[in-house]
Amino acid sequence: MALCLGWRGRCEVVNARPLAIDLFCGLGGWTEGLLAEGFDVIGFDIEQHAYNGQRYPGKLVLQDVLTLHGSQFKDADLIVASPPCQEYSYMAMPWKLAKAKAAAIRADASGKMLADLNKLFNACFRIQREACEAAGRHIPMVVENVRGAQPWVGLARWNYKAFYLWGDVPALLPYPTMTKGFRGFKRNWRDCEASRQWSSKDPRRKQWSAEIAKIPLPLSRHIARTYYPISQTLAAE
After folding, report:
1. How far apart are CA 234 and CA 19, in angstroms?
2. From CA 3, how far away is CA 100, in angstroms rounded?
3. What's CA 234's distance to the chain center, in Å?
4. Could you report the per-residue pLDDT of 82-126, keeping only the tens digit for each?
5. Is the sign of the CA dihedral 9, 24, 174, 151 positive or negative?
6. DSSP for 129-147, written as a single string
7. Sign for the pseudo-dihedral over CA of 54, 60, 66, 72
8. Which secondary structure element, helix H or strand E, spans residue 4, and what is its range?
9. Collapsing DSSP states into helix, strand and coil, what is residue 51?
10. Looking at per-residue confidence, does 235 or 36 come out higher?
11. N or C: which terminus of the chain has fewer CB atoms within 10 Å of its end residue's CB?
């Protein structure tokens, strides 16, 4: 199996295990479950996240997702993505400035502000479409974001607690259990409001954002198990 990586389109050989691509991979919440279920995973992000010994657990490529072309992933068996949610979360908050920003986007008749807002989310589906065209087969993709994204990108197919899912979402998802720590407080608006005491460049805020963005392990493992047999069937054909 060969995969083209990087802006030069260089091809690199990986082994025959099913391959998953993790876009906007962060600390690797999707990747942890995929690795546990037997996938090889390559993550793409614009920066490397490493906090208190935590770092991305798979192979990481530092590249802007907007510069990727889906044909690079024609050998992939699954694509997952968690595009940034900060703008969607912000406009869902009960703050005057947040409401004003949302109103301005809705009032923009040109549609440019909405396109700018959704460019990273829409890039995921562009990449999937290009990958499928290059592969000559359907490559499933699951995109995760927040509830507050729905007014801007359309209704999610399903949700696992505060993790809302678009794309090739399985009909059945695992039943969520109570969690503790950052994952249990994902995008709670009071916690979001508390984080505003830190500047956008403060390492504590970046760590907070990366922690709460991690996909719960039961969800990522379920998605991996759902698509692993499909991956193996396609590889054998």
Report:
1. 12
2. 44
3. 24
4. 999 989 999 999 999 999 999 999 999 999 999 999 999 999 999
5. negative
6. HHHHHHHTS---EEEEE-G
7. negative
8. strand 2-5
9. strand
10. 36
11. C
Contacts of 170 (CB under 8 A, 6+ apart): 222, 223, 226
- For residue 48, which amino acid is it? Q
Would you call 107 exposed, middle or buried from its count of C-beta atoms within 10 A (0-12, 13-18, 19+)?
exposed
Coil, strand, or helix at residue 42?
strand
Length, in residues, of the chain: 237
Domains recognised in the chain with CATH numbers: 2-236 (3.40.50)
Tell me the pLDDT tens digit for each residue of 149-193: 999 999 999 999 999 999 999 988 887 765 443 443 344 444 444
Tokens of 188: 């709670």
